[in-house]
Known about the structure:
The structure holds two protein chains of two kinds.
Chain A: H1 2-17, H2 27-30, E1 31-48, E2 54-60, E3 66-72, H3 76-81, E4 94-102, E5 108-116, E6 121-123
Parallel strand pairs in A: 3-5
Antiparallel strand pairs in A: 1-2, 1-4, 2-3, 4-5, 5-6
Chain B: H1 2-23, H2 45-62, E1 65-69, E2 72-76, H3 81-102, H4 124-133, H5 135-157, H6 161-182
Antiparallel strand pairs in B: 1-2
Helix pairs in contact in B: 2-3, 3-5, 4-5, 5-6
Amino acid sequence: xxxxxxxxxxxxxxxxxxxxxxxxxxxxxxxxxxxxxxxxxxxxxxxxxxxxxxxxxxxxxxxxxxxxxxxxxxxxxxxxxxxxxxxxxxxxxxxxxxxxxxxxxxxxxxxxxxxxxxxxxxxxxxxxxxxxxxxxx
Amino acid sequence: xxxxxxxxxxxxxxxxxxxxxxxxxxxxxxxxxxxxxxxxxxxxxxxxxxxxxxxxxxxxxxxxxxxxxxxxxxxxxxxxxxxxxxxxxxxxxxxxxxxxxxxxxxxxxxxxxxxxxxxxxxxxxxxxxxxxxxxxxxxxxxxxxxxxxxxxxxxxxxxxxxxxxxxxxxxxxxxxxxxxxxxxxxxxxxxxxxxxxxxxxxxxx
Lengths: 137, 205
């Protein structure tokens, strides 16, 4: 019995340990609507997960320094509804993400649109984002 | 005959008295004072969210996902009975935790606590006012949260990771819908279609 409880706690701990904090907050509490940004870089990783997806992108600054971005997206069901698929995330892919800067973490952003190298564009914004015309009507 | 007349008069009188007593209203009784509820809320709603709901719903959400690392899809799902049991434990905790949110007498936040994002998210007294204005709406959202866990529990019992993943999306819809009404109704963001005062009329996002 003790072993089972220990294993359950271990599993639960392991499941939680690698996750970013996912507490719900208003969009404006976490992201700055006055700081839109356009990120052009290489997507290294995509977490296709609830309640939000996460795109990990590397961009290069003017001095060549690489900056790592963590970009929140809508939930996978929303991404799928707008035509994006897991298979669209390929090794070494370049893409352009438009979104908003995080308020506290300089490497955090909220994505609104994703444009792939082949020209396809997808709405990736979370519910509750600003009325900026990015969301298809 | 005289004997009958002699005894009949008291008998009739006695019967009449009995009828009068029987038909008269009983003395009004004071309604019993409502018993104090046996439960005692200790945590505020904010603390229940942070201590019970949030960490456990994260376990449900994170149980199934795909990590696409440099184009390689790595699927994550509970792999054995112990892992499924851990997710079920969390799903059940959230489901029952919804009852905690509905208990009357629970403070919104600890004494003296303010808004977590002033100007964007409401202060506890503002949240309180919204709940008091629509307690049935509040309870409906809490019930909707509880109900949203049922597909997740069913998926867990079938060890159906795809169904659990899809259930996770529905849980988030309920969370966000309630937050848009009671926590940050005027956050400056676009109002989602699901931001109604009742989850019953909330269309799927």
